[in-house]
Write a structure and sequence with these properties.
By secondary structure, the chain is of the alpha+beta class. It has 3 domains: about 110 residues, Orthogonal Bundle (Butyryl-Coa Dehydrogenase, subunit A, domain 1); about 110 residues, Butyryl-CoA Dehydrogenase, subunit A, domain 2 (Beta Barrel), CATH 2.40.110.10; about 150 residues, Butyryl-CoA Dehydrogenase, subunit A, domain 3 (Up-down Bundle), CATH 1.20.140. Helices cover about 50% and strands about 15% of the residues. It is built from 11 helices and 10 strands. The chain has a 4-stranded mixed sheet, covered by helices on one side. A 4-stranded antiparallel sheet has the order 2-3-7-6, with no helix packed on it. Helix 1 packs parallel to helix 4, helix 5 packs antiparallel against helix 6 and helix 9 runs antiparallel to helix 11.
Length: about 375
């Protein structure tokens, strides 16, 4: 099978690589982490102007008409530069909900503002006792006239601190852990009764806890069919896992490249430490983990692009591998850099933290190993 990029994909990758070379470094990463937004709004607008934010969306709403492989190209390049801008949460995840379940009016109303970079979105699904069980939803949306009234709390909402709109899971029927009865809603953060408390994640990105108290929603706020939201959520998260796997692969590649270069210049006992066979073996193991991740990423991206019935299993396998390989490569990179690997002034530690967040997001290694086993039974 030919795994080479198309001409359009190569041009897309080249444009992002140029931005990474010219604009990103550890100082940018540290500086943006201290700002109120947590990323650079000017760079986000540049992403929009260059067409990167349009990649996953259909042409009839102003998008590039790309598939999972195109998203993979973008996310991998951004991951290698450890870019803080919220491509994953805003474009891939929330954009995925709109693309998959939005009616024509919803798509025309909301997607163009994601593509032009003017609106931010966040996916609010986790609750205090839900852990990684997507069916554990106690937030409730009760019918009121033709609309709904929603009450509940969501925690650790990535990009929730700055979002203009939220995609929220809520229960419209059944008990708190029933598979059926979950619905997905669009909520404007300016809605009466909505409040949020901002805090930080391990990698320095912002999260928000969302409280919903008698928030009134119109019938047009519902995404997809009422009570049938779980399958939608799982499918969109699988889309996101492809982007997460690509971002993780880019981050791992950066760690490997940085480590190899460091071992060529760091001397001990009168020679570069990269000449020590034991360290060469460790870097070879890092490379093997990287290539294992690349193989599973390509498989998942192709399966998703072809709407294969095996796509969910491929995404579960990728999530397990990105967690396991990311942990191994990050730990080896820190150790091979010695004491400076733990410092805030070196990019290595920042990649370490981001890989840990990606490993936990939407479910950790154990959760997806169990999901893989269920899907393989």
């Amino acid at each position: 099978m030919d795994f080479s990029l198309s001409q359009e994909q190569s041009l897309l990758k080249d444009s992002i690589d140029k931005f990474i070379r010219d604009e990103t470094d550890v100082e940018r990463h540290r500086r943006l982490g201290k700002t109120e937004a947590g990323f650079d709004p000017a760079s986000w607008q540049q992403f929009a102007e260059l067409g990167w934010l349009s990649v996953p969306f259909a042409e009839d709403v102003g998008g590039f008409g790309g598939n999972a492989i195109d998203v993979m190209v973008v996310a991998q390049a951004l991951g290698q530069g450890l870019v803080r801008e919220p491509f994953l949460s805003n474009v891939v995840t929330c954009g995925g909900f709109l693309s998959r379940a939005g009616n024509p009016a919803q798509q025309q109303n909301y997607i163009p503002a994601i593509i032009d970079g003017s609106k931010q979105w966040a996916f609010a699904f986790a609750e205090t006792n839900s852990r990684y069980n997507l069916a554990s939803v106690s937030c409730r949306a009760d019918k009121q006239g033709e609309g709904f009234v929603i009450n509940g709390e969501k925690i650790a909402v990535l990009n929730g601190h700055i979002a203009d709109y939220l995609v929220v899971t809520a229960r419209t029927a059944g008990a708190d852990t029933d598979v059926d009865g979950i619905s997905v809603f669009i909520i404007d953060v300016e809605a009466k009764g909505l409040s949020r408390q901002v805090h930080r994640s391990l990698d320095g990105s912002y999260l928000a806890d969302i409280r919903l108290e008698n928030v009134a929603l119109t019938k047009d706020s519902l995404l997809g069919d009422a009570g049938a939201g779980l399958a939608l959520v799982e499918s969109v998260i699988d889309d996101s896992i492809v982007a997460m796997g690509a971002e993780a692969l880019g981050s791992m590649q950066s760690l490997l490249d940085t480590t190899v270069e460091y071992t060529k210049t760091r001397e001990q006992f009168g020679q570069p430490i990269g000449k020590f066979q034991a360290l060469q073996h460790r870097m070879a193991d890092m490379y093997l983990k990287l290539e294992e991740t690349r193989s599973l990423l390509l498989d998942a991206a192709i399966q998703k692009s072809e709407n294969s019935p095996e796509a969910a299993r491929a995404c579960a396998a990728l999530k397990v591998k990105l967690a396991e390989a990311g942990r191994f490569i990050a730990q080896q990179a820190v150790q091979l850099h010695g004491g400076i690997g733990m410092t805030d002034e070196l990019i290595v530690g920042h990649h370490f933290k981001r890989l840990h967040v990606l490993a936990m997001l939407y479910g950790d290694e154990d959760y997806y190993l169990q999901r893989y086993a269920r899907l393989s039974a």
